[in-house]
């Protein structure tokens, strides 16, 4: 997308040190941070990468936020799946344009956003949650960035007791006991379909793998932990950063195959 920035779009402002500020461009009014003030009218019509100057003479570069910029700054009602894990999930679970995907739970909608982008307008996403307030939070975060999504449905249900009508090409679970969904998932997945789950703790991942095996409906059951280590290059210093995202969780993938 090479069009200029417009009112009601999100803008990411980046300072000299790489610090990020996320704001929605309003038709009027101003954005304020410790670098000073910027008028929203001065953002409208700018190309991404333009250099703006605050009221205090400080430079801020303006961009459209990447999905990960938005995910890390949007309001949360739950732990989200971090971009480093989403990246692995999308490739290992092979979420493709046009796929029909079932997701549980909705949480804050971070994974829903990534899945919707990956399946594209020809795909479908059904997102389940046991809590209405979580679905509302997810809906707000998704529509705030992407607008109304006709190919996304939210379903209030307990997936431990059953899934919405399939079949699905992919099922993605981010809830405490994915093993309790294994049998339902085996029924709802197309042959060769992929089940993926995310859990933070070792006992949870062990129970998940055991439950997947017990169904005898899955092959290629594999678990991964994704680690991303940012490095700093500043003057003579070239080293990993002192702080980065540590442990988040384990991703387990399984493929629907004949018993
Ligand atoms: C960690 S959050 C999901 C975060 C989400 N993936 C994200 O990236 O924003 C877990 C969600 O699972 C939901 N949940 C827990 N048990 C459930 C169940 N049995 N059926 C459906 N949803 C469930 C919770 O209400 C919560 O919203």
TrEMBL record:
GO BP, one annotated term: tRNA methylation
Taxonomic superkingdom: Bacteria
EC number: 2.1.1.220
Binding site for S-adenosyl-L-methionine: 108-111, 129, 158, 174
Catalytic class of the enzyme: transferase
Keywords: Methyltransferase, S-adenosyl-L-methionine, Transferase, tRNA processing
Gene Ontology CC annotations of this record: tRNA (m1A) methyltransferase complex
GO MF term set: tRNA (adenine(58)-N1)-methyltransferase activity
Coiled coil region boundaries: none
All residue ranges annotated as the tRNA (adenine(58)-N(1))-methyltransferase catalytic subunit TRM61 C-terminal domain in the record: 72-232
Catalytic activity: adenosine(58) in tRNA + S-adenosyl-L-methionine = N(1)-methyladenosine(58) in tRNA + S-adenosyl-L-homocysteine + H(+)
Pfam families associated with the record: GCD14 (PF08704), TrmI-like_N (PF14801)
Purpose of the protein: Catalyzes the S-adenosyl-L-methionine-dependent formation of N(1)-methyladenine at position 58 (m1A58) in tRNA.
Record-stated family: Belongs to the class I-like SAM-binding methyltransferase superfamily. TRM61 family.
Subunit and partners: Homotetramer composed of a dimer of dimers.
Protein name in the entry: tRNA (adenine(58)-N(1))-methyltransferase TrmI
The organism's taxonomic lineage, starting at the top: Bacteria, Candidatus Handelsmaniibacteriota
């Amino acid at each position: 997308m090479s069009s200029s920035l417009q009112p009601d779009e999100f803008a990411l402002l980046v300072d000299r040190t790489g610090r990020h500020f996320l704001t929605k461009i309003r038709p009027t009014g101003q954005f304020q941070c410790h670098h000073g003030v910027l008028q929203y009218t001065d953002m409208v019509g700018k190309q991404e990468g333009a250099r703006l100057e605050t009221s205090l003479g400080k430079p801020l570069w303006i961009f459209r936020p990447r999905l990960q910029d938005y995910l890390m700054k949007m309001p949360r009602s739950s732990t989200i799946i971090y971009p480093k894990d989403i990246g692995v999930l999308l490739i290992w679970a092979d979420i493709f344009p046009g796929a029909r995907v079932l997701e549980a739970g909705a949480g804050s909608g971070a994974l829903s956003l990534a899945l919707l982008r990956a399946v594209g307008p020809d795909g479908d996403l059904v997102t389940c949650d046991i809590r209405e307030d979580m679905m509302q939070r997810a809906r707000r975060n998704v529509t705030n960035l992407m607008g109304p999504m006709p190919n996304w449905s939210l379903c209030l249900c307990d997936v431990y007791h059953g899934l919405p009508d399939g079949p699905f090409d992919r099922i993605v679970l981010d809830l405490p006991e994915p093993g309790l969904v294994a049998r339902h998932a085996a029924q709802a997945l197309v042959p060769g379909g992929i089940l993926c789950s995310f859990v933070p703790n070792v006992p949870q991942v062990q129970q998940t793998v055991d439950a997947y095996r017990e169904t005898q409906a899955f092959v290629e059951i594999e678990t991964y932990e994704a680690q991303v280590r940012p490095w700093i290059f500043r003057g003579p210093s070239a080293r990993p950063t002192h702080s980065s995202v540590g442990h988040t969780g384990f991703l387990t993938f399984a493929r629907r195959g004949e018993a």
